[in-house]
From TrEMBL:
Pfam families registered for this protein in UniProt: TctC
Gene3D superfamilies per UniProt: Bordetella uptake gene, domain 1
Similarity section: Belongs to the UPF0065 (bug) family.
Name this protein carries in UniProt: Tripartite tricarboxylate transporter substrate binding protein
Superkingdom classification of source: Bacteria
Length: 78
């Protein structure tokens, strides 16, 4: 089986020997898994794909709730 996942999810499994990381998709090696080469290093120059996370809410969610969530996430990420 093969999977694309973020480094922090994969890291404990790689370190435990339960998962073999073939490469990271960012331009630079990950500090979390420094021995795993980048895709670019493996023959695909310019390959640079970063992971992002998003938050969704149902249509019609009240604006005050959206503002509250926005504030909470901004504080958590700063």
């Amino acid at each position: 089986a093969m999977s694309f996942t973020d480094v922090l999810t994969a890291q404990p499994h790689v370190k435990a020997g339960k998962l073999r990381a073939l490469g990271v998709t960012t331009a630079k090696r990950s500090q979390a898994l420094p021995d795993v080469p980048t895709v670019a290093e493996q023959g695909y120059p310019g390959y640079d794909v970063s992971v992002f996370f998003g938050v969704v809410a149902p249509a019609g969610t009240p604006a005050d709730r959206i503002a509250l969530l926005n504030k909470a996430f901004a504080e958590a990420l700063s």
